[in-house]
Design brief:
52% of the residues lie in helices and 10% in strands. The longest helix has 37 residues, at 253-289. β9 (362-364), α13 and β10 form a beta-alpha-beta unit. It is an alpha/beta fold and 466 residues long. The chain is globular. A four-stranded parallel β-sheet has the order 2-1-3-4, with helices on both faces. It has a two-stranded antiparallel ribbon with strand order 5-6. It contains 17 helices and ten strands. α2 (10-37) runs antiparallel to α5 and α4 (79-105) packs antiparallel against α5.
């Protein structure tokens, strides 16, 4: 079974693996429910259909959280991330079910059986995820990729591809400046692998895309800003020539109302739940150096409006006393010991719930940038201002799928993807996904080096090709 034939079974193998894990988890829950909880209800004990129904409810919650946290992506995300995603899904489902049991009991039942069940779940998830990931890697080995590059550097892209040797192997590189017939012959050698396009001119890229489409060869490429805008255009059939409508005005009135409602409800609830953690954080900051607990800083939100964002202070007092704006870098000496902890766990962001309640920010949206840093970015990336078509957010695409040190141009593209594909359901998913990344170290990595304002993005020369 090679190439395309193997590919036909990829989703089937992944679905079978997920179903096996789901069945095992549901069986463990059924055992614990039937032995410790079902007969202690304040109403008549559950029998037969009632027990089946409660297990189906548990399975539904497991499926929901597996979808939200990426637990389905066996053979797609890294093994450690996969185990973490599935363990977090099981933990969330168990918490929800315990709350339901509390409602059925009308009192607090013994939590120990559920804690034991959670440990059993983690063991099953760890073993199964490891086994299925290894099996998936064996059945579907890394793809051999042809990299087609232009006049612009591809080292960063190649370096990122190299971090996923379990999925890709760049076997050859060829310049787009070669005659197209030579490129075609080389592409055909990778019909069972794929083609990776570097930053090349649109005319060359379109020619290669059409050739690969005609020969059913997969293509990997990073989108340009214009691609993201067109990608979510509305199809119009007014006459016999296809039209795409790109509205380009951000969210409509209905979407803004729904988003604001979600912001108020969730942020108020989160503020209440987070209050004890915020109190402990404030005491720790104050006890360390007697300095202020909070600091405020001018940031940008929708339509370029300025506001003051609130955060717990994670750096020494007067970290920028020289008046020069600096992004945090790896091993930054300005970050206090308490600051390292609250930055790693994102506790320093909690005071922004006040900004959301006030209406300066939203729960989901582009990261609020400092005016002076945004101005520097816009000198070489004028499109960076496109992010301001919606309110700045506590979380979002760039915060979840990027890192602190993700390049400005990549952050722009992630934010544009969110804006152009906004939906209420997607906001809910992103809010829940935020809990997953809170304890992922790579998402809080700082900038490398002594950059005052790290303009790690496309050069002006590259931008002309977008």
């Amino acid at each position: 079974m090679k190439g395309v034939k193997r590919e036909q079974f990829r989703r089937l193998v992944r679905s079978i693996a997920v179903m096996i894990i789901l069945v095992l988890e549901s069986f463990i829950f059924y055992y614990v429910w039937n032995k410790y909880y079902s007969r202690g209800l304040w109403i008549e004990p559950f029998y037969a259909k009632g027990n089946i129904f409660i297990v189906l409810v548990y399975a539904a919650f497991m499926l929901l959280f597996l979808y939200i946290y990426g637990g389905f992506k066996i053979g797609y995300i890294k093994r450690g991330n996969l185990i973490y995603s599935q363990a977090l899904s099981g933990l969330c489902a168990n918490v929800i079910m315990y709350l339901q049991i509390v409602l059925l009991y009308r009192r607090l039942p013994d939590v120990r059986p559920l804690l034991a069940m959670t440990l059993a779940d983690l063991l099953v998830i760890g073993i199964c995820s490891y086994f299925f990931d290894k099996l998936f890697s064996y059945i579907f080995p890394p793809r051999d990729i042809l990299l087609i590059y232009g006049e612009y550097p591809v080292e960063k892209l190649g370096g990122k591809i190299a971090t996923r040797k379990d999925k890709f192997r760049i076997k050859e590189r060829i310049s787009v400046d070669k005659d197209f017939e030579t490129i075609q012959k080389k592409i055909l050698e990778y019909e069972n692998g794929g083609v990776l396009l570097g930053d090349i001119h649109s005319s060359d890229r379109n020619q290669i895309l059409k050739f690969c489409y005609a020969h059913s060869i997969r293509v990997y490429l990073t989108p340009k800003v214009s691609d993201i805008i067109v990608r979510n255009g509305e199809t119009l059939h007014l006459f016999d020539t296809p039209l795409l409508l790109c509205r380009n005005y951000g969210l409509n009135i209905g979407q803004r109302f729904a988003k604001r409602t979600l912001d108020l409800v969730v942020s108020v609830l989160m503020f209440i739940v987070a209050s004890p953690f915020m109190l402990v954080t404030a005491i720790a900051i104050k006890a360390y150096d007697k300095g202020p607990v909070l600091f405020k800083q001018k940031r940008l939100t929708i339509d370029g409006k300025e506001f003051y964002v609130y955060k717990f202070r994670s750096m020494i007092v007067d970290a920028e006393k020289d008046g020069v704006a600096r992004l945090a870098k790896a091993g930054d000496s300005r970050i206090t010991p308490v600051g390292k902890v609250i930055r790693a766990t994102r506790l320093d962001e909690l005071p922004q719930l006040l900004n959301i309640i006030k209406g300066d920010m939203s729960l989901v949206g582009p990261r609020p940038e400092r005016p002076e840093i945004a101005k520097e970015y816009e000198k070489e990336i004028p499109e960076f201002a496109f992010r301001l078509k919606v309110k700045a957010g506590l979380t979002g695409y760039a915060q979840i799928y990027g890192k602190y040190n993700t390049t400005a141009y990549d952050k722009l593209k992630l934010d544009m993807m969110y804006i152009e594909s906004y939906s209420f359901i997607n906001d809910l998913k992103l809010i829940l996904s935020t809990f997953k990344i809170m304890f992922m170290k790579e998402s809080t990595e700082g900038m490398e080096g002594e950059e005052t304002i790290a303009l790690s993005h496309q050069s002006e020369k590259e931008k002309k090709n977008d």
